[in-house]
Amino acid sequence: MMGKVVDHELRVHGLENVRVADTSIMPTLVTGNTNAPAIMIGERAASFLRTSAG
Predict the structure, then answer these.
(1) What is the rounded CA–CA span in Å between residue 37 and residue 45?
(2) Separation between Cα atoms, residue 11 and residue 5, nearest integer Å
(3) What is the 3-state secondary structure (H, E, C) of 1-54?
(4) How many whole angstroms separate alpha carbon 42 and alpha carbon 54?
(5) Which residues, other chains included, contact 11 with Cβ-Cβ below 8 Å and sequence gap of 6+?
(6) CA pair distance 16, 39, nearest whole angstrom
(7) Considering Cα of 21, then 27, then 29, then 30, what sign does the dihedral take?
(8) Which residue numbers in the chain have pLDDT < 50?
(9) Quick check: 20 and 12 in contact, CB under 8 A?
(10) CB neighbours (10 Å) of residue 2?
């Protein structure tokens, strides 16, 4: 898991302009289907990219 490798805006620590949008960033895995959390992470990543680009 990469939960401690990224910050709250999905940026990889120690690298510039690199973000991870995957369920591997979750600090603990959910016991059920990971589809909804994966979609949420992707939506948040898109939001972060939109705000940082403009």
Answers:
(1) 12
(2) 8
(3) CCCCCECCCCEECCCCCCECCCHHHCCCCCCCCCHHHHHHHHHHHHHHHHHHHC
(4) 19
(5) 18, 19
(6) 24
(7) negative
(8) none
(9) yes
(10) 15
C-beta of residue 10 within 8 angstroms of C-beta of residue 20: yes
In angstroms, what CA-CA distances link 3 with 17, 25, 51?
18, 4, 22
Amino acid at 53: A
Residue with tokens 């690298």: 15
Strand partners, 19: 11
| pTM, to two decimals | 0.79
